[in-house]
Predict the 3D structure of the following.
Amino acid sequence: MGLGAQMMEADPPEHTRLRRLASVAFTPRRTTELAPRIEQIAHDLIDALPPAGETDLVEAFNAPLPGTVIAELLGIPEEHHLDFRRWSARALQVASPEHRPALAGLHGLLADLVADKRRRPQDDLLSALVAVRDEEDGRLAEEELVGTAMMLVVAGHESTVNLLGNAVLALLQHPDQLRLLRDRPELVPGAVEEFLRYDTSVERSTSRYAAEDIELGGVPIPRGSMVVVALGAAGRDAPQAEDGDPAVLDVTRPGARHLAFGHGIHYCLGAPLARLETTIALRTLLARVPELELAAPADSLQWIGSGIIRGVLSLPVRYRVG
Ligand code: HEM
């Protein structure tokens, strides 16, 4: 029996229902259709930079790119984008005093929008969710809709911002790998898998509980105890012989293996979108910004202290747009 089958899910059945409903509206087709718009957003952000200088790449590029994508996907009007990005950035920082106000702000914004989309449906994900009919209960209750939208935002925003940040930071610390990707942009999709393995942004899973007594790696886990999977560490596990040294960043590594999107029934719903966004963001950044280097010592960078999300709070770089 696999580990998944021996673990009970921590979340109530309600969550499974919301997931099912979200996946109806959040289809792979919707994701693929987003590619040209994501490219446009990436180019616009680079166009907005002064031609050369120093900037915080998190603020200027890594955060606004996925933030704008998810905001547009949900159908959040542009005048709310700044608030939306600020709140979703804080929503996972559980230690921050802004955590609760940010969740409340996000909830209020999404609740207003859901009501609005009910009155005037548009061609966006929130309107699609409003239109989804649950075969048991008919239309979704307002609170379920807002909960589903919150789940997408909280799960999907900071994870992507910080995968991108960790990837750029890794490249800046490995100039040979950076050069390789600049010379061979066709390697970028495979490199994204390597970044998910080498330094992913979601460090650990949500809680699971052992459904029976088990032993893992010589550690007895009694039935009912809470188990959290160190997803980031799994990418650095003792390798199969063919995988090579897990401590080495190798953007040409074939089929980098990782648990970055989880496993089993909670497998990341947004994995195709996260891959697409990160691939387009890196390709555009490398193509448009021929000079890019860290503007501060790597060991002076401040890391997010949420325990869930791994990434730097800011990424000071010196750059020149080509
Ligand atoms: C690099 C970016 C991302 C990473 C590393 C990531 C990682 C993960 C992981 C590890 C889980 C499973 C957690 C667990 O089993 O305890 C998960 C679940 C989830 N992800 Fe992502 N994610 C990313 C981007 C996204 C995006 C862009 C979206 C949607 C817009 C999204 C939506 C979700 C949702 C809704 C779930 C919950 C699924 C469930 O509980 O059934 N994620 N993600």
Summary: The chain is about 50% helix and 10% strand.
